[in-house]
Design a protein that fits this description.
Layout: E1 3-5, H1 10-16, H2 32-37, E2 40-47, H3 58-73, E3 79-81, E4 96-103, H4 112-120, E5 123-127, H5 150-161, E6 165-167, H6 173-182, E7 186-188, H7 205-213, E8 217-220, H8 224-227, H9 235-247, E9 254-256, H10 276-283, H11 289-303
Parallel strand pairs: 1-2, 2-4, 3-4, 4-5, 5-6, 6-7, 7-8, 8-9
InterPro entries: Metal_Hydrolase, Pept_M19
Protein name: Dipeptidase
EC number: 3.4.13.19
């Protein structure tokens, strides 16, 4: 069973230490060898610029990560660039599709030319914020909890026009609802259920149901803090989130957004991309094979721009 994973931070690790090998460096949880071992058909690679980077250096950092995507990830054998969503249909069994995404718009400031440049470099999904505020919106960690700015609304419209997904993971609650009004292709690339784990990064039941109504997507995230609220979690704990999402009508809208390489603690036996079989085998004990295939990647493909 082939997997689509909608979020990892391998590019950040490569940017922090460019000498690393993307092929098999054990420090990279979603390296090429592990993606192959885990039967990952497509992996989303996020450009993420750390908050401590000075404002006038943020876009350069984003460009450097995009360059690493092209020069290291795509130059690794059997990695194939997903330039448009239709490319997912022609990924061969021995290939891993590489999708470039953007986590937070801090790097563009108020310059939409920079966003269009990132589209041209391959970005197919855009998260408006990380946890803090930027010129487009407030993140979930911003105390005032404001929504989208005029610029942020322009970004969502640009995403729609360019068949780019708008990602609400990390976005403020008010921002979430404004995106639901504006976005043609909304996703939560890496979020879980708030009613099971009271962490602000998770989605409440109404948000989950609205994403379903909007034909959106929710990638369950493997970070124990978003699964159980502490540093220990099992695959069974993660499946309780999937069960809850299904109970809200989201069965055909669920996928995986591991957050590998962006988390410091891990679910037991789900510590890197090479261990996806552990999750799939557990899911097959509870769900029919066709449903699990949906979780693995078919649900994500169904919601994509046509």
């Amino acid at each position: 069973m082939r997997i689509i994973d909608t979020h990892c931070d391998a590019l950040l690790k490569l940017w922090e230490k460019p000498s690393r090998s993307f092929f098999d460096d054990p420090a990279i949880e979603a390296n090429a060898s592990r993606l192959q071992a885990g039967r990952v058909a497509a992996q989303c690679f996020a450009i993420f610029v750390e908050p401590f980077i000075k404002s006038d250096q943020k876009f350069q950092a984003a460009l450097e990560q995009a360059d690493l995507f092209h020069e290291k990830v795509l130059q690794t054998p059997n990695m194939r660039w997903v330039k448009s969503w239709s490319d997912l249909d022609s990924i061969k069994d021995n290939e891993v599709g590489a999708i470039l995404t953007l986590e937070g718009l801090d790097s563009i400031g108020d310059d939409l030319t920079k966003l269009r440049t990132l589209y041209r470099l391959g970005v197919l999904s855009v998260g408006l914020t990380w946890n803090q505020a930027n010129l487009c919106a407030d993140g979930i960690g911003e105390a005032r909890g404001a929504g989208l700015t005029t610029l942020g609304k322009e970004v969502v419209q640009l995403n729609n026009e360019n068949l780019v997904l708008t990602d609400v993971s990390h976005l403020s609650v008010k921002g979430f609802w404004e995106v639901m009004e504006l976005a043609d292709y909304p996703i939560a690339s890496h979020s879980n259920a708030l009613s099971l784990c009271d962490h602000p990064r998770n989605l409440n039941d109404e948000q989950i149901q609205t994403l379903v109504k909007k034909e959106g997507y929710i990638g369950v995230v493997f970070h124990p803090l978003f699964v159980t609220g502490n540093e220990k979690a099992t695959i069974s704990d993660l499946i309780t989130h999937i069960d809850h999402l299904c109970s809200l009508g989201a069965r055909d809208h669920i996928g995986f957004g591991s957050d590998f390489d962006g988390i410091a603690v891990h679910i037991d036996q789900l510590e890197h991309s090479g261990q996806y079989d552990q999750l799939i085998n557990q899911l097959l004990k509870y769900y029919p094979e066709e449903v699990v295939k949906g979780f693995a990647g078919e649900n994500f493909k169904r919601m994509l721009p046509k």
